Amino acid sequence: MRTSAGDSYRHPEEFEKDKAQFMANYNYMKLSDPENYEDWFDKEAIDKYVRGIFNPDYNNTLFGVARNEKTSTTRIPTRCEKCKKPWAIEYMSNSFEENYLDVGLYHNIPMVKGDCKECREDK
Fold first, then answer.
1. How far apart are the C-alpha atoms of 4 and 121, rounded to whole Å?
2. Residue 87 β-bridge partners
3. How many angstroms separate the Cα of 55 from the Cα of each of 46, 68, 114, 120?
4. Which of 24, 65, 68, 118 has the fewest CB atoms nearer than 10 Å to its CB?
5. Alpha carbon of residue 103 to chain centroid
């Protein structure tokens, strides 16, 4: 059984609802097939809901981010004083990179001020 939606950004009630559904299916299979009941579920889902172990790679795989894709783990939102674009220094696949953020999402959010890569290159 797979979970639905990224746990990082979900309300705790949604997680508890998914956990309750998983545990209902898990316990049913445990009664129906006592010897092979764990074969019906992903190991990571069992770790997550039964044992309380969280695996970020598992969540990324569930929600469409493959391990070989660039995945941001560190983000420091910054606004360029010249062009007003929001950008961030992100840790992406073993290196730090500067990337622009969604302008619509970060439009009204106060951020640290600093020149972006393009504006620094224009100097």
1. 43
2. 78, 100
3. 11, 16, 34, 38
4. 68
5. 20
